[in-house]
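Final report, section 2: Outcomes. Of the targets proposed, histidine kinase is the one most frequently requested by collaborating groups, and we therefore present its record in full.
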Amino acid sequence: MLIGTSKGLPGEFLLLFTLLIWVLFFLVYLGNRHNRLNRWCFISGMCFSMGVFKEYLYFTLFPAVMQAWPGWMTEELSLDIYSVLTAVLYYFAMPAALVFGFYFSRMDERRPKLFRWARIGVFVPALLFGVFYPYLETRYYQLYDRTYYLCAALYNWLYGGLLTVLLLGTLWRERRTAVYRQKKMVAILVLVPIWYQLISAFLIHLLDLKGLFKAWQGNLPIILFLIIFYLYNAFKGGFMGARFQHESYEWNQDGKLVNQSAQFLRHMLKNEVVKIEWCAQNIQQSAPEEAADYADIILRSTTRLKELSGKALHYSKDIVLNRQVLQIAPLLEACAADYRKLSPGVQVEVRCGEGDELFCDQAHLTEVLNNLLNNAGEAMHGQGSITVEGKPAGRGYQICVSDTGDGIAKEHLGQLFSPYYTTKTSGHHIGLGLYYCRNVMRKHGGSIQARQNETRGTTFVLRFPGE
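The predicted structure is given below as tokens.
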């Protein structure tokens, strides 16, 4: 028989605990199997579930198996399985969670070189633990080697701290984006059970608080709450790629959802516009002069519909960069010169160092600047001044577009870059211009922000990271 007995929850509850963890993280995985965030959240969740599962196996299932079928299970084998599953929890759960944090913070987009090394490097300590403290002997070290336990605790706390910094830093950086609320809920889903585990499984044991050794089982109601939390948000509006009834979408990148809707809209309009155009052309050719005038109006409207749907599709497409080193001053001057021709009542001043260079996509950056100049001109109703300034910022570079227009109300600032959001009332705006600008900057690993000027008007700041 196994030495010792399990205190705390009965074996049936430990099995229920394990199943609840699996249910939660299978829901996350099935929300969008193709999303790397979902995948790594699932992997780390499965690693953490081994902490409960090994307790159920070692203290409940294995003793029953040894009693019923003595030849199937031995004390030595049961200890080996317990030790290996403990190693999975102690060594691999936090690195998997940290890789999730890398994707959460968009490190793969913002710092691709660092990401390629970091996602491998975080697992190196887990392998070294296996060399110095063999996985098959983890149970022994856990019980009798305090130095080992301190090392394991510091290792897990360090990774937990790094994960927390990644998640909270990302929330702060993206606090005004369309996916902020979604990411905030995901951070809750991840950090609450992890930190409860890190405190209850390590700190209590290091302090030798024997009466609280099973406090880690308090994660059961937390997991139950998180399942309800997940389902509630999945039903309410969608969570981590699942929206009931089930629809997969990129929860951390709304571009694909917007692109799909734009394609659907264009396809739907195309067939109807063709029929309307055909009827209008027939009216022009065969009807009296007054009816032909109405036909002209219809044809102009159909032309406009095709332009708008084409523009929506263009702005919602996945952005592929063709980056090169560019002289910034000529690019800014060219955009300003083009805008002066379109709006002669607006003064455009360019400030930029002659030797300033930027590694970027010229076509997309030009389109971003054109969007910002057009928006600034409309905010000033065709009269006023715009300043376009490029300058180094730390290791990176920033471009500011400032106007002397009406400004932007505070309640609109947080929604400016959301798809289909616009404060304009004319039919020429579809609410994808600033959304497109945000996506271009994200692809460059940078950001775009809007702020009110101290006196009058608005400034849009494009920030590019240093290479």
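The CA atoms of residues 116 and 137 lie 32 Å apart.
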